[in-house]
Amino acid sequence: MSQEPNFGRWSAVIPPDGGQSWWQPLPSRGYVSVALSPENTPYDGFSSGMQLLPPGCSIREHGHERNHELLFIHKGTGTATIEETTYDLVPGSIVMFGRHARHFVVNTGSEDMEIFWVFMPPGLEDWFPAIGKERTPGEPQPEAFGRPDNVADVQAKLRFVPAMKR
């Protein structure tokens, strides 16, 4: 009689708005929610969540020295510029940014863009509370606000690659 091995099976189902969430400063606006991270799973190889990017808003150009980033566009349209090449984004698009690849995402559509993200290894989940404002699901979006004064220190600590000099 053989017994099926148990390799530490673990699972999670995170409902919409089930993770920690932060309103984002300009130019992103909208919000980010962290669903899975080393803080709430037994895995230390990734973090993941959702970002809502309103029409006309963007994720500033940046890169990551030590991380890969994967995006899945669930809803909305826009563009992703990776280094100097721009790609159209539509629902179902998957985008992968490797280490050091500078990237810039813009919602060019007329509806909110919903983005599922995975960050490997984790770390992006530390960025959102450092620059954002805590969000409670269902509350109205606050007035636009800027990044904190110490944003350069936070970027250096998290090993961000700066935007290209233009």
Topology diagram in text:
Layout: E1 20-23, E2 31-36, E3 47-53, E4 58-64, E5 68-75, E6 78-82, E7 85-89, E8 94-97, E9 103-107, E10 113-120, H1 124-131, E11 133-134, H2 151-157, E12 160-161
Antiparallel strand pairs: 1-2, 1-11, 2-3, 3-10, 4-9, 4-12, 5-8, 5-10, 6-7, 6-9
Keywords, separated by commas or semicolons:
Jelly Rolls; 166 residues; five-stranded antiparallel sheet; single chain; seven-stranded antiparallel sheet; mainly beta
Can you walk me through this structure?
The protein has 2 helices and 12 strands, in the order ββββββββββαβαβ. It is mostly beta strands and 166 residues long. A 7-stranded antiparallel β-sheet has the order 8-5-10-3-2-1-11, with helices on one face. Strand 1 and strand 2 form a beta hairpin. It is globular and about 65 Å long. The N and C termini lie far apart (68 Å).
In short:
The protein is mostly beta strands and 166 residues long. It has helices at residues 124-131, 151-157; strands spanning 20-23, 31-36, 47-53, 58-64, 68-75, 78-82, 85-89, 94-97, 103-107, 113-120, 133-134, 160-161.
**Outline type:** globular
CATH C-level class of the domain at 20-132 is: Mainly Beta
Radius of gyration: 17 Å
Low-confidence stretches: none
What is the strand tally?
12
With helices defined by DSSP (H or I, 4 residues minimum), what is the helix count?
Answer: 2
- What fraction strand? 35-45%
* CATH level-3 fold name of the domain at 20-132: Jelly Rolls
Major sheet strand order: 8-5-10-3-2-1-11
Q: Terminal Cα separation, in Å?
A: 68 Å
CATH architecture assignment of the domain at 20-132: Sandwich
Task: Describe the sheet with the most strands.
Answer: 7 strands, antiparallel
Order of helices and strands: EEEEEEEEEEHEHE
Mean pLDDT: 93
